[in-house]
Amino acid sequence: MGGKITFWFEFASTYSYLSAMRIGGAAAARGIDVTWKPFLLGPIFAAQGWTTSPFNLFPAKGRYMWRDMARICAARGLPFQRPAPFPQNGLKAARLALAAEEHGKTEPFAQAVFQAQFGDGADISDEAVLRDCLLKAGLEQGLIERAGSPQVKSALKEQTEQAIAAGIFGAPSFTCGPELFWGDDRLEQALDFAAPGAI
Which residue among 11, 25, 40, 188 has the highest number of C-beta atoms inside a 10 angstrom radius? Predict the structure, then answer.
């Protein structure tokens, strides 16, 4: 029996981009199933009194992050372009990711959104950009309407509340049972923990 891991991601998160582009292959190589869960960092930041990303609130941290992203993307062969504005409004994209889950295509849709945003510098709050992401993921354009339904809106709110209850404070995060791992640089540790036979 394979292991299981939950991948909590936020579309506005730079480091979520890094994990989204590699977690599927890394987990499959270890026989681990991944559950993709979009959530919103806004309510979590607001609870700490923050009105924007900590990378904007703390300029030195922001400068480091952008350089760090450039280095890592270059090393991994990933395209990278700083989007403007930052952080992007990922609400529509997150709702669409939940709607895509009903078709078993959260992963390809999420990857398309992350590539559009951090690979091409596109605005992921733009419906035209999201429609292109649906196309790339092999999903119907009608999902735009589904994503605006009360059911999907409630599901995203509930998922964000689940993230808060799990102690998540940033993205990307990975959970395996009660264990929480934060950051792309903890992906391997999370997979080690989730691997079949791990203690």
Answer: 11
Q: Which structure tokens are listed for 16?
A: 């979520």
Residues 6+ apart with CB under 8 A from 51: 45
Are 198 and 13 spatial neighbours (Cβ–Cβ below 8 Å)? no
Task: Give this prediction's pTM.
Answer: 0.94
Q: Virtual CA dihedral for 63, 69, 70, 76, nearest 10 degrees?
A: 170
Listed in sequence order, the DSSP H helices in the chain are 14-20, 23-28, 42-47, 54-57, 59-76, 91-101, 106-114, 127-136, 143-147, 150-165, 187-194
Looking at residue 3, the DSSP 8-state letter turns out to be: E
pLDDT digits over 125-135, tens only?
A: 999 999 999 99
Return the SS3 of 27: helix
CA dihedral (176, 179, 183, 186) in degrees, to 10, reads -80
Q: Are 170 and 183 in contact (CB under 8 A)?
A: yes
Query: Running DSSP on this structure, what letter comes out for residue 75?
Result: H
What's the pLDDT at 56?
67
The Cα–Cα gap between 76 and 78 comes to 5
3-state DSSP percent of the chain in helix, strand and coil, to 5: 55, 10, 35
Q: Which residues contact 138 (CB under 8 A, 6 or more apart)?
A: 105, 108
58-70 as b/e, with b when 16 or more CB fall inside 10 Å? eeeeeeebeeebe
